[in-house]
């Protein structure tokens, strides 16, 4: 606890002026790999590899064909250290959360950091050790009102070190969030990681369904809402899209009318 307290103090000193504890005649601490992060960020690291592997062994065989394809493709990008942005187009009931949790477990089972986040608190509770986007990346609440918003993360701090070591960022229900939030995260990570590639070279998986809730723009016009969409961001040109199309939830009901209802919802969402 004493060591963690000193780390927290040094993180604040670094953030404010780039100095260390030694400049203030305080004990110099030795940062190990695990202890290198302030206590409040240990949640990004504190995973049992055996438990993660057990999760994979218990559930991987349940993946549907197109889920398995996306799972393999994304993990191949991790293993080959490729950056980029993936969007999983996943209507309700197609097993997106199941897929995301397996991807997260696989990354963490190898001792890597996967930042699991979501647009809302409810969605964040459904991904393993998930956080809201604003909490995970310190995004200002008024990001959409700023010309060039950035997050409250600075080089040398604990959260900055976590981001530097992260292998992947997972965002559940991504279409719900204003594009300014993602642009703020991208801008900040490029600075923190010293990498001009999207999101500082960290592999990103967005997931969600644009047919559902779009960003809420207070007193916004149709044009304002469309402009707030992730698809309108310059980041979207870097996105590779994959689709989950098998509605597993409908299949499990054993109700012959469920498939028709699912198709009706899809047609409405597509504007047909």
From TrEMBL:
Name the Gene Ontology molecular function terms of this record. Answer: 5'-3' DNA helicase activity; ATP binding; hydrolase activity
| UniProt GO BP | DNA recombination; DNA repair; telomere maintenance
Reactions mediated catalytically:
ATP + H2O = ADP + phosphate + H(+)
Coiled coil stretches, renumbered: none
Question: Its Enzyme Commission number?
Answer: 5.6.2.3
Q: Which cofactor does it need?
A: Mg(2+)
The UniProt keywords, alphabetically, are: ATP-binding, DNA damage, DNA recombination, DNA repair, Helicase, Hydrolase, Nucleotide-binding
Family annotation (PANTHER family): ATP-DEPENDENT DNA HELICASE (PTHR10492:SF57), PTHR10492
Protein name in UniProt: ATP-dependent DNA helicase
Organism listed in the record: Eptatretus burgeri (Inshore hagfish)
């Amino acid at each position: 606890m004493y060591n963690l307290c000193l780390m927290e103090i040094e993180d604040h000193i670094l953030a404010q002026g780039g100095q260390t504890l030694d400049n203030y005649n305080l004990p110099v601490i030795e940062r190990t790999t695990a202890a290198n992060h302030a206590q409040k960020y240990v949640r990004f690291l504190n995973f049992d590899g055996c438990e993660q592997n057990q999760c994979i062994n218990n559930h991987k065989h349940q993946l549907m064909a197109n889920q398995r394809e996306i799972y393999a493709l994304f993990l191949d990008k991790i293993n080959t250290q490729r950056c980029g942005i993936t969007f999983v187009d996943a209507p309700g009931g197609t097993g997106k959360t199941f897929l995301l949790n397996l991807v997260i477990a696989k990354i963490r089972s190898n001792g890597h950091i996967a930042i699991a986040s979501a647009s809302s608190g409810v969605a964040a509770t459904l991904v393993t050790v998930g956080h809201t986007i604003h909490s995970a990346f310190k995004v200002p609440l008024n990001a959409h009102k700023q010309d060039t918003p950035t997050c409250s993360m600075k080089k040398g701090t604990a959260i900055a070190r976590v981001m530097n070591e992260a292998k992947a960022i997972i965002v559940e229900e991504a279409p719900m969030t204003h594009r300014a939030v993602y642009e703020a995260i991208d801008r900040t990570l490029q600075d923190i990681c010293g990498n001009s590639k999207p999101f500082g070279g960290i592999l990103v998986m967005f997931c969600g369904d644009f047919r559902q809730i779009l960003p809420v723009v207070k007193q916004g016009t149709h044009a304002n809402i469309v402009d707030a969409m992730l698809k309108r961001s310059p980041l979207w040109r870097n996105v590779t899209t994959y689709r989950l199309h098998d509605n597993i939830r409908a299949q499990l009901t054993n109700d012959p009318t469920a498939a028709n209802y699912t198709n009706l919802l899809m047609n409405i969402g597509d504007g047909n």
